[in-house]
Amino acid sequence: METVDGRELRVAHWKAETGSAGHLPLLFFNGIGANLEVATPLAERLPDRDFITFDMPGVGGSPDPVIPYNAILMARITAILLKQFDMPQVDVMGVSWGGAMAQHFALQHSGRVNRLILAATTPGMIMVPGKPEALAKMADPRRYIDPAFMQKHFKTLYGGSQEGSDGHVTRIKPPSKTGYFYQLFAMLGWTSAPFLPFLRKPTLIMMGADDAIVPLVNGKLLASLIPNSEMAVIEDGGHLFLLSHAEECLDTIREFLDRPDPGEAGGRNAAAA
Questions:
Q1: Cβ neighbours of residue 66 under 8 Å, at least 6 residues apart?
Q2: What parts of the sequence cross the membrane (predicted)?
Q3: Following DSSP, what letter does each residue of 111-169 receive, concatenated?
Q4: What is the average pLDDT value for the chain, to the nearest integer?
Q5: b/e for 167-193, b at 16 or more Cβ within 10 A?
Q6: Residues annotated catalytic, as ranges
Q7: Rounded distance, CA 102 to CA 93, Å?
Q8: Which of 75, 107, 142, 261 has its CA 20 to 30 A from that of 195?
Q9: Beta-bridge partners for 26
Q10: 207, 218 Cβ separation under 8 angstroms
Q11: How far apart (Å, rounded) are the C-alpha atoms in residues 162 and 240?
Q12: What sign has the CA pseudo-torsion 150, 119, 182, 194?
């Protein structure tokens, strides 16, 4: 547990096992209602860099928020947390709801961000919604508390391959009602669309071709708005393609993060040295 500007947050920090070798830490924003254990498979497969994430208020092990919060406040809280962990600059990744949070953090704290990865996400209010049957299952609280329900409706809920679904079901924990509501409320009416043309960070947009919650067209919209962006489409990938296509995704993520910066002969690592 960490106290960040008076707010208690449950934080996970995986330290690089083999030395960071010039790699920046990776800050990870999770999906809505998702506790930090959900990010464990990704963190463990990136042993050459620090990896940091935290439970949003009322999610996982973080206490319920006393008052509602928004993206501006959580971006500020995140910046303070990074300062406490002596991380002046990071690469940033966000999935689904966390992808919106990652966009906002990159816009609000641009100087702290090197590269940005947006997975299965949208520019917020301006988006193409998913399939009605998937959204209905997403609103059902049984997906958190009933593993059998989650397993039965996994395909309808997330789309794409069901590979890795067993592990996901056992890692996820139900958020509190207050935590889930406030997390929804935090992005009510939010959109990054007017500001994304000014986002100059190298950005990788990862989308599942068969995502039932965030259709592929939303990734194309993001790519059209962010100048220095590229898109990777995971064929047969649903909303949880980071689990079902883990190795393919990791190869794409590593290649993007380790790529030399344009105009630098030795890339970021050489410059850091």
A1: none
A2: none
A3: GGEEEEEEES---BSS-----HHHHHHHH-THHHH-HHHHHHTHHHHH-S--TTHHHHH
A4: 86
A5: ebbebbbbbbeebbebbeebbeebbbb
A6: 96
A7: 6
A8: 261
A9: 51, 91
A10: yes
A11: 9
A12: negative
What pLDDT, in 10s, does the model give residues 166-225? 555 567 788 888 998 999 899 999 999 999 999 999 999 999 998 988 999 999 999 999
Integer Rg of the chain from CA: 17
Closest residue by Cα to residue 56 from 152, 163, 184, 247: 184
Query: Token digits for 6?
Result: 């008076």
What are the extents of the domains in the chain?
2-262
pLDDT tens track for 30-81: 998 889 999 999 999 999 999 999 999 999 999 999 899 999 999 999 999 9
* Cα distance between residue 93 and residue 207, in whole Å: 13
Give dist(CA 123, CA 223) in Å, integer.
10
| CB environment 59-92: b (16+ within 10 A), e (fewer) | bbbbbebeeebebeebbbbbbebbeeeebeebbb
Closest residue by Cα to residue 82 from 24, 18, 22, 21? 24
Q: Which two tokens stand for residue 131?
A: 């399939």
Spatial contact of 192 and 105, defined as CB atoms under 8 Å apart: no
CATH of domain 2-262: 3.40.50.1820
What amino acid is encoded at 40 in this protein?
T
Check if the beta carbon of residue 90 is closer than 8 Å to that of residue 27. yes
Q: Quote the CA–CA distance of 19 and 80 in Å, as a whole number.
A: 24
| Beta-bridge mates of residue 29 | 94
